Amino acid sequence: KHDTALTYMQAYQRFWVPTPHRDYYRIHPSLNPCGTDHLRWSSNSPNLQNVGKQEQRCEECDGEGCQSCGNTGLAMLSARNCFGPAPDREWWSLDFESIEKRIPAFECMEPSLVELFEKPNEPPYWGSDHLLLCSLLWPDKYNPIAHIKGEFKRRYINEYKRAKNTNFAKQYGAGKRKVDATAGIPGAYDLIDRGMPKLAALQAHYLRLAERTGWVETLPDRTVDPQRGYPILASRTEDGRVLSTTPFNYHVSGTACQCKNTALIRCAGQCKHWREEGFDAHIALEIHDEILFDFPRGKTVVDNMFRALVLKELMEQSGEDLIPPIPTPVSVELHTESWARGVSV
Q: Shortest CA distance to 53 belongs to which of 263, 335, 316?
């Protein structure tokens, strides 16, 4: 991870240009809305969508802080520590929360998934789809302690990690053999489908649609066409058959991107309006489900908060415009020094 981060930093350095502020540089990446097979954008020269958030805890002090880690508690810092606003600016990061998990959950109204999103601070799932999967894979271990927040993860960390990896594997279309192997339980794939039958039916629906037509659609957007979504070609195998892992994934990620794209349009319009009024607001970058805004620095941390909340409402409108409407909450963070360190609002 450390070597990969350094390789990325070398790419960023090749493209940066000086600014009037000493030791500050600016990067202008190319963003291509048509750069992937679906609605995800691509970024190059350099790729600024790979600026990782990952950090690694120091094993010497277990995150407490020691001499070897410079009292940070971290053996590796996130690459985002190298990015931040200019001295007279501040960044506001607005991020759709778990949008690719919310879309299918509310589209098919799978009861357990809807419950964990609507009651994130209550048992039995505590807002975690990983814990939901634990309850399906190891009910004898999970159910007796489901009422205690965090207890299953503390007692059964290996099972929790397997559930987390299995969740991602199933979400991105892994087959039965892969899911069963990841969970370490024979028949885990079928067990999960029986536990969430509406979600399994939705996945099967989009696979059948792709096999019949060769493509899938995003959810319709009432501001564009209330009857049809955006069509996305499904990937195919060498023998010409539809690749079974892509239809559902393309439908979900495509719908998430439709939300992000309409949010970009609304927010760009709002920033333009503010600039006309004399407030120099800009969209600095879009990173998958996150939009980064660059504002003039306020005298206090709350000076520009109302503007961030206006943008938050504009982004959340994208989910309300889908058919059916999907709740798409957006988190807000203020970054005054570094992109890696923010204050949640």
A: 335
Average pLDDT rounded to a whole number, residues 154-182: 90
Buried b (16+ CB within 10 A) or exposed e, 254-291: bbbbbbbbbbbebbeebbeebeeeeeebeebbbbbbbb
Phi, psi of 203 (to 5 degrees): -60, -45
- Secondary structure class of 39 (helix, strand, coil): coil
Q: Are 137 and 183 in contact (CB under 8 A)?
A: yes
Tokens of 69: 């880690």
At residue 171 the predicted structure's pLDDT band, cuts being 50, 70 and 90, is confident
Q: Kindly tell me the number of DSSP H helices and DSSP E strands found in the chain.
A: 12, 13
Distance separating alpha carbons of residues 4 and 48, to the nearest angstrom: 14
- Average pLDDT in the chain: 92
Q: With pLDDT > 90 as the criterion, what percentage of the chain qualifies? A: 74
For residues 214 and 198, give the distance between their C-alpha atoms in angstroms, rounded to a whole number: 23
Answer whether 254's CB lies under 8 Å from 232's CB. Answer: yes
- State phi, psi for 198 to the nearest 5 degrees: -70, -40
Query: What's the N-to-C CA distance of the chain in angstroms?
Result: 30
Q: What is the pLDDT of residues 130-153, one digit of tens each?
A: 999 999 999 999 999 999 999 999
Q: Which comes out higher in pLDDT, residue 8 or 277?
A: 277
> Would you state the structure tokens that stand for residue 317, as one six-digit string?
């409108």
Under DSSP, the state recorded for 218 is: P
